[in-house]
Amino acid sequence: MSTTAPPAAATRPATDPLRRTSRAAGILYLLTFVSIPTLALYQDARRDAGFVLGAGSDSGVLLAAFSEVVVAVTCVGTAVVLYPVIKRQSETAAMGFVASRVAEGALIIVGVVSVLTLLTLRADVAGTADADPDSLVTTGHALSAAHDWTFLLSQALMPAFNALCLGYALYRSALVPRILPTLGLIGAPLLLASDIAMFFGLYDRVSVAAAVATIPIAVWEFSLGVYLTVKGFRPAAVAALPPAGSLR
Predict the structure, then answer these.
(1) Which of 66, 112, 145, 192 is the residue whose CA sits 20 to 30 A from 38?
(2) What is the model's pTM?
(3) In whole angstroms, what is the distance from residue 165 CA to residue 98 CA?
(4) By CB neighbour count within 10 A (0-12 exposed, 13-18 middle, 19+ buried), where does 1 fall?
(5) Cβ pair 105, 73 in contact under 8 A
């Protein structure tokens, strides 16, 4: 009499910890794009000399400031999430990526503080009897200029260094299709050249030239965010990474 062995119990596949990491990094990268409307929302505060005296609405400026805080937090978040993976390919690149992301987030917060200070002057000082309109306008210009410079150093300059560090590690490891980090490695020097031009006053950050120079980096970051969210790291490349405890 033959007996049939009972079917083996189905086992649930183990969850890949790097899949959670890649998904979290992708979502954080996509969240950094909430700052896209900020240039338009800040125009009243940047261009209107009477803004600090109460002209125009401050709701758009508040929304832009809040979105920049979100960007600062998500910038640091991408570095924290990706660091354990990237350091298995290159400790130097991983540290550079974290440092540039933290610097970017910190400078963004400094710029937001400048804007919020401008709004405080507008709300609490401009309407008082002893307010000096000329002094307020001068102070408003100074705070607006402070935000412009922190924007140049944070959301324009730091992404170039981010792309060089992260792009190098991802290209070497092939954790994602190499066309993605290639976009970052090509866009980084273009963006850096544009930042230098803006630094020396050749054109404004809202000019066509500045916008064109940011396209490769923007495409790199957005496509990386989408790929990591939807697909995750390539399994063969993950398997080829050195053990977590080893450094290169």
Answers:
(1) 192
(2) 0.87
(3) 9
(4) exposed
(5) yes
